[in-house]
Automatic annotation (TrEMBL):
PROSITE patterns: PROKAR_LIPOPROTEIN
PANTHER family tied to this protein: HIGH-AFFINITY ZINC UPTAKE SYSTEM PROTEIN ZNUA, HIGH-AFFINITY ZINC UPTAKE SYSTEM PROTEIN ZNUA-RELATED
Similarity comment text for this entry: Belongs to the bacterial solute-binding protein 9 family.
The protein's name: Zinc transport system substrate-binding protein
InterPro entries, alphabetized: AdhesinB, Bact_metal-bind_prot9, Lipoprotein_PsaA-like, ZnuA-like
């Protein structure tokens, strides 16, 4: 049965290669560069920081789609098969990744599960655990966690291209020092903040909150599924008023209407944070500095 499935998949991929225009397309890898498939925007940016101009990155999840809602199409499997390295986050963020890898059937491909060595934050909601797994997958939004993920990407790129080892090591060292500097800067700033309550559109900033000893309260759960019950909204409004919350954060891929309504009821303003999920955004460090500056302003 497995043999039959493999033959069917091989035939499918052959046919698709002849009709590649039928799916989402990405430009071919630049000549002389390592072709890398990154699952979504954050993995693209971390890989970009380590790989530099030695890599050509194709992002699988297109703009406007949540990584955990994505379903690979035929053209995506072809691009995945052609990549020498595949970088994905893990922890349930890309439920489709393992099946896509099996279907693509690339040979000698280096697969990097970036969150492999990150200390996870358990999900508290039982329904979320049953549907998505045990842990909050938004690891890249914590600075210390992103540094660990960048280390995993560094090792994966070295395995795929040992001749570029020194370059990847140097890029990682530069990135790690920048992460440490940014973390120290905002630890000092946020330690002085009179408020420690970070109120967000959905529970994506748990690792950042852990890194900076903040408390995260959110409108929606970690996977942002469904509409929050009215009771939850009332409790959150009371929380915001009791803790004098000045700002309620939403994200680029969420409808801001709910956060704005909540902010209006709580006597707060609404602001946008980036979760780096979409491709083509600014670099990781610039985006996180912008996020932290907004959080610092909100808590002071």
């Amino acid at each position: 049965m497995k043999s039959y499935f493999k033959k069917e998949m091989a035939l499918l991929l052959t046919l698709l290669a002849l009709t590649a225009g039928c799916g989402r397309e990405a430009p071919p890898a630049e000549e002389g560069k390592i072709p890398v498939a990154a699952s979504f925007g954050a993995m693209e940016k971390l890989t970009e920081a380590i790989g530099g101009d030695a890599v050509s990155i194709s992002v699988m999840v297109p703009e406007g789609i949540e990584p955990h809602d994505f379903e690979p199409r035929a053209g995506d499997l072809i691009r995945l098969k052609q990549a020498r390295v595949f970088v994905y986050n893990g922890m349930g963020m890309e439920h489709w990744a393992e099946k896509a890898l099996q279907s693509a059937g690339a040979e000698n491909q280096v697969v990097v599960k970036a969150s492999e060595k990150v200390a996870p934050i358990p999900l508290e909601d039982e329904e979320e655990r049953e549907e998505h797994g045990d842990y909050d997958p938004h690891t890249w939004l914590g600075l210390s966690e992103a540094k660990e993920e960048a280390r995993a990407i560094r090792d994966g790129l070295i395995a795929a291209s040992p001749e570029n080892r020194d370059r990847f090591m140097k890029n990682y060292d530069t990135f790690a020092k920048s992460i440490d500097s940014l973390q120290q800067e905002y630890r000092e700033k946020l330690a002085k903040a009179p408020r420690k309550e970070l109120v967000t559109g959905h529970a994506a900033f748990g690792y950042l909150a852990r890194d900076f000893s903040l408390t995260q309260e959110s409108v929606e759960d970690a996977f942002a599924t469904g509409e929050p019950p009215a009771r939850k909204l009332v409790e959150l409004i009371r929380f915001c008023r009791a803790h004098h919350v000045k700002t309620i954060f939403t994200e680029e891929m969420m409808d801001p209407a709910l956060a704005r309504t909540l902010a209006s009821e709580a006597g707060a303003s609404a602001e946008t944070l980036s979760t780096l999920e979409e491709p083509g955004s600014e670099g990781y460090l610039d985006t996180m500095r912008d996020n932290l500056e907004k959080i610092d302003k909100a808590l002071n």
